[in-house]
Design goal:
This protein is an alpha/beta fold. It is built from 20 helices and twelve strands. The strands form three sheets. Strands 1, 2, 3, 4, 5, 6, 7 and 8 form an eight-stranded mixed β-sheet that branches. It has a two-stranded parallel sheet with strand order 9-10. Strands 11-12 form a two-stranded antiparallel ribbon.
């Protein structure tokens, strides 16, 4: 019997099952849909019930750890660094000056305002670090100490604890350093870890995961070199000025890049101009601390010399090759066949209050500030045996005996010391080890009982810091006279 078809316009009755057994029956669904439903349920449960409790638990533990660290540090960790990274990004993005620059960017480029605002937010996310006290003290400082002591015999030549302790607690401390090697970050981070935490300005070379995550966790911030984008420059400027106003201790390299010649270069004025402008407007004092770094061997010396000769500043090093060299060094160190790369020395100069410089020159410019700070940095760069021997051999102008070279190096060291240079270990044993190190690397050639220059470019790179000190001492007018008399 066939069912009657419904007539057009007539309502169709659909039978409804009133059997309760069918309401609780089994429904078949694909496995992937079941997994998706369970995943959504788990995420909803975690976000509403689990994550807040977990965040609260770890936040309480972090606050207790920070409180314990602050009792040991000479200068406590600044509250600005302990803010959530999202909050710091919002603070920079909604800064009145950044908002004005965002509107200017929208008008100049013709993009909608919301697009310009998202561009500013992207720049802020790129720059603002995400400091982690546990990563900084639990991993970074320990790794820095281990790596420094693995590669070098580290010595602090002139620690001036009394003057650093006298710096006002509310002052913003800024370490100003020469830039010889990427080990500079590692050495200074370790050596000042008992006093304070540092925030570095790091170039684009480090924006590689997972290195970028580690560097952000240490409180460093990334900067682009030589970008003409006004909006980016304003975001960077306001972050640096906000950190300075909040008392964040910083470490900057006025040269901006590694030296290709071994000499201390002219300062780049971007960060210094931001700090100077902020200090003139706010009440928080700023104190600069000159730091000089010296090495018997710079890890990147061959790359830097090659870049100086070719004019191409690109350092492409394969990760596999780096790991292989590290494994080789560890193996040789384990069996006592390698004692590291010689000495590394760090020298801290006298703190320089910016208020004093402004009192001497109320119209102080970034150019004048940069020149003054770099002069102070050059005065505290320590002299180590290898650069001393290299400079003595170049000054000799021809083949010399070992004894004559040692005497020349000692005489040169005495003259530098009399001129006020900071001397690291320069005893006879240190000079002999320095000569042998230069021979092993081909910078000095043995010709019978005479020593002569081998790799002149690399030897000149090693000698450059000492030669720069000689030039500065020769240009300094004798006591009782002034320049121009």
């Amino acid at each position: 019997m066939t069912a009657a078809r419904p007539v057009r316009g007539q309502l169709t009755r659909v039978p409804v099952c009133r059997d309760s057994a069918h309401m609780f029956g089994t429904v078949e669904i694909p496995l992937w849909l079941l997994v998706l439903i369970l995943a959504f349920a788990a995420v909803t449960f975690a976000s509403h019930f689990l994550f807040p409790s977990v965040r609260w638990f770890f936040r309480r533990r972090m606050e207790r750890a920070v409180a314990e660290l602050n009792r040991r540090l000479h200068r406590p960790i600044e509250p600005f660094k302990l803010l959530e990274r999202h909050d710091r990004i919002q603070q920079i993005v909604y800064d009145p000056q950044v908002l004005a620059a965002t509107l200017d960017h929208a008008r100049a480029t013709g993009v909608p305002r919301n697009v310009a605002f998202e561009t500013a937010r992207r720049y802020a996310r790129e720059i603002v670090p995400g400091f982690s006290a546990s990563v900084y003290f639990g991993f970074s400082v320990r790794a820095a100490r281990w790596l420094s002591q693995l590669l070098y015999r580290v010595q602090v030549v002139s620690p001036d604890e009394t003057e650093l302790r006298r710096v006002a607690p509310e002052a913003t401390v800024i370490f100003v350093m020469n830039h010889r090697s990427n080990m500079d970050y590692v050495l200074v981070t370790w050596l000042v870890s008992s006093r304070m935490t540092l925030s570095y300005a790091v170039g684009e070379w480090a924006r590689v995961w997972p290195l970028s995550w580690l560097i952000r966790s240490m409180g460093a911030y990334f900067i682009r070199r030589q970008t003409p984008n006004p909006l980016y420059r304003k975001v960077l400027e306001r972050y640096v000025q906000t950190a300075t106003a909040e008392g964040v201790a910083q470490a900057i390299f006025p040269e901006g890049r590694l030296s290709l010649t071994g000499r201390t270069g002219a300062p780049r004025l971007g960060l210094l101009s931001y700090i100077l402008a902020e200090a003139k407007q706010r009440q928080r004092p700023v104190v600069f601390v000159p730091v000089g770094l010296g090495y018997d061997r710079v890890l990147e010396d061959k790359l830097l010399v090659a870049a100086g000769e070719t004019g191409v500043r690109r350092f492409r090093a394969r990760l596999a090759l780096i790991m292989l060299n590290v494994a080789r060094m560890l193996w040789r160190r384990l069996w006592g066949r390698w004692q590291g790369f010689g000495g590394a020395a760090v020298s801290f100069g006298h703190p320089i209050p910016l208020d004093r410089l402004l009192a001497e020159d109320p119209a102080l410019t970034p150019e004048a500030l940069g020149d003054r700070l770099m002069q102070d940095v050059q005065r505290v760069i320590p002299v180590l045996p290898v650069p001393l021997v290299a400079a003595a051999l170049i000054a000799a102008g021809g083949p010399v005996s070992r004894s004559a070279l040692a005497q020349a190096a000692q005489a040169l060291g005495a003259r530098l010391r009399a001129a006020g240079a900071v001397m690291a270990a320069d005893d006879g044993g240190g000079l002999e080890a320095a000569v042998q190190s230069l021979i092993d690397r081909g910078m000095i050639l043995v010709d019978g009982d005479r020593l002569r220059v081998g790799d002149a470019a690399l030897l000149g790179f090693q000698a450059a810091p000492v030669q720069q000190m000689q030039d500065a001492a020769a240009a300094k007018p004798p006591q009782g006279e002034t320049a121009g008399t």
